[in-house]
Specification:
Layout (H helix, E strand, L loop, with lengths): L15 E2 L10 H13 L13 H13 L8 E4 L2 H9 L9 E5 L8 H10 L2 E5 L8 H12 L4 E6 L12 H11 L2 E5 L11 H4 L3 E5 L11 E5 L49 H15 L1 H21 L14 E5 L6 H10 L2 E2 L1 E3 L2 E5 L6 H15 L2
Parallel strand pairs: 1-10, 3-4, 3-5, 5-6, 6-7
Antiparallel strand pairs: 2-8, 7-8, 9-12, 11-12
Helix pairs in contact: 1-8, 2-8, 9-11, 10-11
The protein binds pyridoxal-5'-phosphate.
Length: 386
């Protein structure tokens, strides 16, 4: 079992931070990498043409290792999930009579691109709502999703865990069903990759898109995407010099190239060799590979289990373990709770969580201890008392 890693971060001791799903705190090593990257531009004479390639190559390799992708050229550096999704929707041809399946209240960057594509093509957007009941909610929501996929479904775009309430979606079952009907499976891994094991070879999604600043411990403004062979001959949303073959030969850039670099590299954002953000995210993903997402998930489960059992006994709703993230979950409050009072109380005690829809969203990581959860439970109990 991993031990608490708080000393690797600079979170103030007074803060009970249960909000990695909002943004992770900064690893000291990542901060250092960023400062070194910033300082490098003091003397550009020391920045060589190779430097435009070496660290981004290492970053793709580190992420490929994290998701068990055999070929790092399938990984592209992107600035945001919306950008990664734009590359996906740019390369899909939908038609009236076809449909795209999403889970309800998905993160907007994995909703708006589909909404627009459906609007432009006349395809239907099927947004699958959770059941009204809290009994077997996660299981029933998954069943509804599978039932909503039919022979006219061209795409299922979803996440391993729902960003707002932590519901776990059964990607293996969704992959089986999408294969049956010849539909694509597009995954927004932002709230899962890094915090739990994710094996590309197991789920074989057509694309996996992740923001970097949450469970990947990276800075804001850089993320990573995996594009399968399906996208090999596609068109990127923009045309950048470095994404073409021979781009390492700066003297020859005046001779335009019609061919893209291999795999998914055509989909990378312009100026992706960002000398500050790339070394930061690289250091972060290396740390994750070292800690191992399986161990991180086990740690999160371990530090939350007792507190969640206590909350359930006191009338709060928590999804069954099998249908929620160990690192991210929603806490449903008893009927009649004054949520504004809860928010104010927790804030006064410097307990940071998020409020998404009807849930208190709690998200933990390796810098948390069991005491953080105990403190949250104690103060929440006080806050809900009439
Ligand atoms: C599931 C999910 N996807 C994506 C994002 C961020 O999207 P973008 O990188 O487009 O800003 C978030 C941020 O909260 C998220 O929770």
């Amino acid at each position: 079992m991993l031990r608490c890693k708080r000393n690797k971060f600079t979170l103030p001791p007074s803060v009970t931070y249960l909000n990695c799903a909002y943004m992770s705190p900064l690893l000291k090593a990542v901060e250092k990498a960023g400062i070194n990257g910033l300082r490098a531009k003091r003397n550009p004479a020391l920045i060589s043409p190779e430097d435009f390639f070496t660290e981004s190559d290492s970053l793709r390799e580190a992420f490929a290792r994290l998701i068990h992708a055999p070929d790092p050229h399938r990984v592209a550096i992107i600035p945001s999930v919306s950008y990664g999704m734009a590359n996906v929707t740019r390369n899909l041809r939908l038609a009236r009579g076809e449909n795209v399946v999403l889970a309800a209240r998905q993160f907007p960057s994995n909703y708006y691109p589909w909404q627009r594509l459906c609007h432009e093509t006349g395809a239907a957007l099927r947004v699958v709502a959770p059941p009204e009941t809290f009994v077997n909610r996660g299981r029933q929501w998954n069943e509804r999703l599978l039932e909503s996929i039919d022979a006219s479904t061209r795409v299922v775009a979803i996440a391993p865990v729902h960003w707002a309430d932590g519901t776990r979606f059964d990607l293996a079952a969704l992959r089986r069903r999408t294969h049956e009907v010849n539909a694509l499976l597009i995954i927004d891994g932002t709230q899962a990759v890094g915090a739990m094991p994710f094996d590309i070879m197991h789920f074989r999604p057509d694309a996996l898109i992740c923001a970097g600043y949450k469970w990947l411990f990276g800075p804001y403004g850089i993320g990573l995407a995996y594009y399968s062979e399906y996208f090999d001959n596609g068109l990127p949303v923009e045309e950048n010099w470095i994404n073409r073959v021979e781009s390492h030969s700066f003297a020859n850039l005046v001779n335009y190239q019609s061919e893209y670099r291999p795999g998914a590299l055509r989909y990378e954002v312009g100026e992706h060799s960002n000398f500050i953000l790339v070394p930061m995210l690289l250091r972060a993903v290396q740390q994750l590979n070292n800690w191992n997402p399986e161990q991180i998930e086990a740690y999160c489960r371990h530090i939350t289990q007792n507190s969640l059992n206590a909350l359930k006994q006191q009338g709060f709703w928590i999804e069954d373990d099998a249908w929620r993230g160990a690192h991210l979950f929603g806490v449903g409050v008893p009927p009649g709770t004054d949520m504004e009072k809860v928010k104010a109380h927790l804030l006064r005690h410097k307990i940071y969580v998020s409020y998404r829809g009807d849930f208190i969203r709690v998200s933990v990581n390796v810098y948390n201890r069991e005491q953080d959860m105990t403190r949250f439970v104690r103060e929440l109990q006080k806050a809900v008392k009439p």
